Amino acid sequence: MRTEEEIILFEEALEEIANINDYHIIGELIDVLEDDTEHEEVMWGLIHTIEYLYEFSPKESLELLIHTIPDNIEKGKEWIELLHIRILNHDKYRKLFAGALKEVDAQVQEIIVNLLNDIKKEDPVRFEGKIEEIKTFLLN
Fold it and tell me: Which of 21, 58, 63, 136 would be a feasible disulfide site paired with 100, CB 3.0-4.6 Å?
């Protein structure tokens, strides 16, 4: 986005997306996350819209999130980590996330477990137990 007008139009589009209440668009929203951005407020708007859409079908929303990570980890890792931190801090979503993660192939699991391990390294006191809970669930 190059102008203030483009930012406003994008934010209005996010509002329209949220008003539709269709979690199926989560994958496309994650595709837009970009670490190398001059407009963090736009990325925060995306994060909030994604989280809002989780509410309509949490399990399926988290499945969509999981499936989009491999294609977006390179360009949006910081924002994807933020989404995962927020999932880790939400008991219900963390359990649903672990269940959804268990259902995907080993390659996708490995990418996400590596992401979770990076989060754990940044703040082991806060996240080690939560991440180990997910990893244990994957093994059972």
Answer: 63
* pTM, full prediction: 0.92
Q: Which two tokens stand for residue 80?
A: 């994807």
CA 83 to the chain's CA centroid: 4
Q: In angstroms, how far apart are the furthest CA atoms of the chain?
A: 51
Counting Cα atoms < 13 Å in the Cβ hemisphere of 117 gives 7
- pLDDT computed for residue 7 by the predictor: 87
* Residues of the chain predicted below pLDDT 70: 1
Under 8 Å CB-to-CB from 41, ≥6 apart: which residues? Answer: 7
> For the chain, what percent of residues have pLDDT higher than 70?
99
Please give the Cα distance from 133 to 135 (Å, whole number): 6
CA distance 108 to 70: 7
At 31, phi and psi to the nearest 5?
-60, -25
- Inter-CA distances, 38 with 34, 41, 82, Å: 10, 9, 18
